[in-house]
Amino acid sequence: MADAPRDLTDAELRDSEPEEPPHVSLAPSEHPKSEGDLVWRVRGIVKTIRPHQWVKNVFVLAPVVFAKEIFDPLLLWRAGAAFLAFCLLAGAVYTMNDLADVEADRQHPVKRFRPIASGRVPIGAARVLAVVLVTGALAGSALRSWQFFAAAAAYFALNVAYSFKLKHIAYLDVGCIAAGFVLRVMGGGFATQISVSHYLLVCTALLALFLGFGKRRHELAVAALGGSGKTRAALESYTARGIDVALTVTALATIATYVAYTLDPRTQEFFKTRWLWPSTAFVVLGVWRFLHLVRSRPRAESPTQEMLKDGPFVGIVLLWVVLVMWVVYHLRPG
What we know:
Elements: H1 38-48, H2 62-66, H3 73-100, H4 102-106, H5 115-118, H6 123-144, H7 146-164, H8 172-192, H9 198-224, H10 240-263, H11 265-271, H12 280-296, H13 303-307, H14 311-329
């Protein structure tokens, strides 16, 4: 099953065509030696496609892991190619997002330093970058199989629809984020020709919903502090109480689904062990730590980004991975 994140997430485009942004002063650390410095601009392009967010695409590898095929070189190669395709699409979506949100980003205390909003990456170059990334990813997907191409294309189309329209609809916007994670898992299954269990899909969807609502809760906290204002249209329709309820429901549902998976006789028969259920402890700890980050760091740009830099959270995830790998691949009761 497996699972983890919108910024589950990931793309957010404005309805109007963005214009060339005026000059925005950069933080001292952002100033290059020369405004025309090529290396500085290339680094800006890398920052725009957000490689640090590509970790969410590890969901593509979930079918291989839980099918006990992680040591099969051919399947790993196919899964790796699928991972790369989704990374390229994610990079394109982030670029399109920054292009369309350039005006709003210039008003944000943190996002105004993004490469496109600050003028570090020219508008024209960003548009070419998005086209190249999408073309390369979909062309490569088509070479794998039509099912994988369909999953990748659906992922991209969903993000575009989300960016232009669906992100403005409260709760549906988070649902779109969750659907993106489910498509990642399905894409991994299609790329490796591994059947994906219903448990894996449901748990992925619930976890992504949980992370998405956590991000919205964080944005409400930022708005309440007067740090950025409610720049996201759908945020006006959210309430702190409503999101807290959604967080509680999705957190409990995620944990319950995971427990049901570990205790399912078919799961125990497939892995030839009954000892997957103790890994639930790390799922509970991970959920708790994410909620802590949402509530204790309101001035961070994103809680999903913060969790990747948070030592305790990363440690919890690593311990979960180690335990699951040991149980799935090595533990065999006598």
